[in-house]
Amino acid sequence: MTEHMVVIGAGEAGARAAMALRENGFAGTITLIGDEHHLPYERPPLSKAVLTGAEEPAPPHILDEARLAARGVSLLHGTAAIAIDRAGHRVALAGSDAVPYDRLLIATGARARRLAVPGTGPETVHYLRSFPEALALRRRLVPGHRLIVIGGGFIGLELAAAARARGADATVIEMAPRLLGRAVPQEFAALLAARHEAEGVRLVLGATIDRIETTAEAHSVVLGSGEIITGDTIVAGIGALPETALAEAAGLAIDNGIAVDASLATDDPDIFAAGDCCSFPHPLYDGRRIRLEAWRNAQDQGNAVAKAMLGGREPYEAVPWFWSDQYDLTLQIAGLSYLATATVTRDLGDGARLDFHLADDGRLVSASALGPNGRIARDVRLAEMLIARRARPPAADLADPATKLKSLMV
Amino acid sequence: MPTAIATRWIEACAADEIDEEDVIRFDEGDRTFAIYRSPDDTYFATDGLCTHEKVHLADGLVMDNIIECPKHNGRFDYTTGKAKGAPVCVDLKTYPVRVEGGKVLIGLD
Ligand SMILES: Cc1cc2nc3c(=O)[nH]c(=O)nc-3n(C[C@H](O)[C@H](O)[C@H](O)COP(=O)(O)OP(=O)(O)OC[C@H]3O[C@@H](n4cnc5c(N)ncnc54)[C@H](O)[C@@H]3O)c2cc1C
Ligand code: FES
Prior knowledge:
Chain A: Pfam families: Pyr_redox_2, Reductase_C. Chain A: Keywords: Dioxygenase, FAD, Flavoprotein, Oxidoreductase. Chain A: This is 3-phenylpropionate/trans-cinnamate dioxygenase ferredoxin reductase subunit. Chain A: Its cofactor is FAD. The structure holds 2 protein chains of 2 kinds. Chain A is an alpha/beta fold. Chain A has 3 domains: about 5-110 and about 240-310, FAD/NAD(P)-binding domain, CATH 3.50.50; about 115-235, FAD/NAD(P)-binding domain; about 330-410, 2-Layer Sandwich (Enolase-like, domain 1). Chain A has helices spanning about 10-25, 50, 65-70, 130-140, 155-165, 185-200, 245-250, 295-310, 375-390, 395-400, and strands spanning about 5-10, 30-35, 75, 80-85, 90-95, 95-100, 105, 110, 125, 145-150, 170-175, 200-205, 210-215, 220-225, 230, 235, 240, 260, 270-275, 280, 290, 320-325, 330-335, 340-350, 350-360, 365-370. Chain B has no helices and 10 strands. Chain B has a single domain (about 10-110), classed as Rieske Iron-sulfur Protein (3-layer Sandwich), CATH 2.102.10. In chain B, about 35% of the residues are buried. Classes of the chains: A alpha/beta, B mainly beta. The interface between A and B is medium-sized, with 18 and 14 residues. The structure holds flavin-adenine dinucleotide and FE2/S2 (inorganic) cluster.
């Protein structure tokens, strides 16, 4: 009989799953173990409102004590899980007794990838994954402060936008010749680059980093070209690594994250994984194994894995969806562009645009949009619904702003 | 003794300004509302801003009796104001609605 459910990681996926276990009728004990000291909170605001808001922020909590109590979820926060004893069905904790489980969820998320060049260290390079890190950066972003951002991905660009909003200078150094990597269409990356430059951000693209130098007054990044960029704070946003150490030590299969099947179970039928830490086969994309670092996925997988832990067998096939806010622009991406071979653009007005990405057989596999959120959101949502239905909408209809996407939903 | 709270009816829009299963924004003074027309042709009104991060719901998508927020897809039942799950957990305030002479009126207290 299943009596004890244990969740390691009290982030977006873990917190959601703990609540959803109860919402789905589970009557036994639910223990949520989190190594952070705060109640579970949302991370997306850490590179947005937490940095730019007028008042000193509190963590954007997902749950409070009252809601945890109402659902009978015991949260052990400030507690790290240090080992999984699969044979004994127990999780060892730092500083307290092991907890027994019948079914276990690993939702340990991801951690910021560390910069590996000479001169880096905790005093010289900042990262942004947690609330305390966001608060430390926020306190530095004052008018005239010179922020150097290493990495032109989402977090780096949101940081640059936040720095400008607070009157600080920002320089973004990126290794690739363009911003945002392959997940974002080239045209959108170019539009965002132009906007950042118009806002006064200096973009240094195609640069390698030789080393970091620190003096009493400043920190400098020495580029491979010999150029030296000097500032007051260096922050690196160069990607995230799935937090797989516990799973790995317990002998679970790892493949760019904790490898789970279509219903989010690991190769141990009593252990599941969800959120940024796991890779899973996606039915909409030929069963390709993917790992997402996206907030809605963490939530959706939290809901889905709760059902799976209770014996459900439904495959997880939510359409991947991601957004980023920079200045007054929102970028939203639904679906994955793996299978895409053609693009159709729809003009949404006010400079907003929506690109539909189609596979060889005309199937809509992905959509990306850039513009004010209110201009793009509804159409991206409808595109997402078309992607989920594996629809093949006529290209001419997709391109024509006069054709309501809702009308293509047959 | 019960006190009667005077309801002030104000004209929000023409009934045919909203498509079926759709929503529009209506501002009055410094307040903002969302006015809905359901698939079965009934009108509803709620506060205009999402309870998660104060985004205008009128830019969102209406599906049956659900309004989905355009920012992070939080969902509310606009007929009752009920928040339908993460990331929204605080309900929306709703307002009474009357349709008279082709106009949609909402009742404010
Ligand atoms: C600054 C920032 C901005 C973002 N912006 C966006 C955005 O705009 N849009 C978007 O879609 N996504 C965004 N994301 C991504 C999104 O926040 C993540 O996808 C989401 O938080 C993943 O949830 P998770 O539960 O898998 O992992 P997490 O939220 O990372 O939670 C994992 C938790 O597990 C804890 N943990 C790890 N190991 C242990 C252990 N051994 N014992 C106990 N606890 C442990 C961690 O400390 C953490 O609290 C952003 C992320 C960051 C960092
Ligand atoms: S602002 Fe509405 S769901 Fe976040």
